[in-house]
Design a protein that fits this description.
alpha/beta; Rossmann fold; six-stranded mixed beta sheet; 29% strand
């Protein structure tokens, strides 16, 4: 099956004062279309850095990154933004919703940037799909943690991305809410064929994946 994400000898360095920190160190990796993959490792192993590189939120210091066969390593900021809008949906541990927007408004927002038509109708459909059809006009402060993360999932799906990148998506949730969120993500992967990459330190979350990649000191160790 074709690769939707490929990393070739990727390195990412940060400079902290006079010290160079190699967050990602010579990583090569292929993620196939419709895969469900967990990225694990201790704190500081490079998990989130790798996700940010794959998500076109950052550029590698060395090496190449391909999204759908296109080398995105040296694209301009505007070109990277276009890749993010069209191909990638993000789910973060801290939700990152706009507090002054309703659930409906938060889900509509990515579609406004993409100039999509029928935004309100699609946002309603997505919120209903994650079980929040009755909470369309509630603000994030009026929702539980699990409900807020459901809004974030609906927002990530707004532009029908090929890839969902989730950084500790259950990290701020109780176990029941966390299981419900994982059930939604696994269902997306199985029914829509959405490629799913989840960064987690939790074995109970990683067990939902079909493949587990383990990082240590910026390198893949398994």
């Amino acid at each position: 099956m074709e690769s939707v994400v490929e990393l070739k000898n990727v390195e990412k360095e940060y400079i902290m004062g006079e010290v160079k920190i190699k967050a990602i160190n010579g990583v090569s990796l292929k993620i196939r279309k419709s895969e469900n993959v967990a990225i694990m490792g201790p704190s500081g192993s490079g998990k989130s850095t790798m996700l940010h590189l794959i998500g076109c939120l950052d550029r590698p210091t060395k090496g190449k990154i391909f999204i759908d066969g296109k080398n995105v390593s040296n694209l301009s900021g505007n070109e990277l933004a276009k890749i993010r809008r069209e191909k990638i949906g993000f789910i973060f541990q801290f939700f990152n919703l706009i507090p002054t927007f309703t659930a409906l408004g938060n889900v509509e927002l990515p579609m406004i940037f993409s100039k999509k038509q029928n935004r309100k109708e699609r946002a309603k459909e997505l919120l209903k799909a994650v079980g929040l059809g009755h909470r369309l006009y509630h603000y994030p402060s009026q929702l539980s943690g699990g409900e807020t993360q459901r809004v974030a999932i609906a927002r990530a799906l707004a532009n029908d991305p090929e890839i969902i990148l989730a950084d500790e998506p259950t990290g701020n949730l109780d176990s029941k809410s966390g299981k419900e969120i994982m059930d939604i993500l696994v269902k997306l992967n199985k029914e829509r064929g959405t490629t799913l990459l989840i960064v987690t330190h939790d074995n109970s979350i990683a067990k939902h994946a079909k493949r587990i990649i383990k990082l240590k000191d910026g390198k893949i160790v398994r």
